[in-house]
């Protein structure tokens, strides 16, 4: 299996990047292909008004690496794991921009949007977050966003690893050892038990065994 691990903090050696690297290592240990991408390396701008901005052939006119990252890394992957610091109780602007920019290619105004939509459906999705504050809802908004993203794209939300830290590398000192958890999350990413039932979903009475 292939997974894209998108690290979305501007601090390349920061806490969420450490979680992302640990997760990518875990994926590789389990025999999966893990591609690690820094959002800052592929995004040079926010989504614009596509009606004004789109090139005559339908392509996005923003000259950066997003198209390659989206078509070569994101769409072919069976798994997508995003790492973000908590910024103002939400994700980094980079991660939000990555999601927003997909619009240019799944919108009906893109000449070949149907295979793009197909490629966005049905991934396994994971979230890695780092924050200074420890109260549970500090990551609530981002978790809600991912839950809705997974519902909308008929994807499976595999889970969240949250590390607490502020200075670069602080998460390595978090007594909960989120780097170990992120590595394990990567190892188990494609096999981990993940459910989101409807009331009439047929299921066994026990979760395990
Ligand atoms: C612009 C900005 C906003 C932040 N907002 C929050 C916040 O709302 N809650 C929080 O717990 N930490 C907040 N932080 C702290 C970061 O989440 C924390 O330092 C995190 O570990 C940074 O991750 P990084 O090293 O991957 O960049 C903020 C930091 C910055 C720079």
TrEMBL record:
PANTHER family: NAD(P)H-DEPENDENT FMN-CONTAINING OXIDOREDUCTASE YWQN-RELATED. It comes from the Bacteria. InterPro entries: Flavoprotein-like_sf, FMN_Rdtase-like_dom, ISF_SsuE-like. Residues 1-111 form the NADPH-dependent FMN reductase-like domain. Pfam families: FMN_red (PF03358). One of its GO terms (molecular function) is oxidoreductase activity. Transmembrane segments: none annotated. Keywords: Flavoprotein, FMN. This is NAD(P)H dehydrogenase. It comes from Methyloceanibacter marginalis.
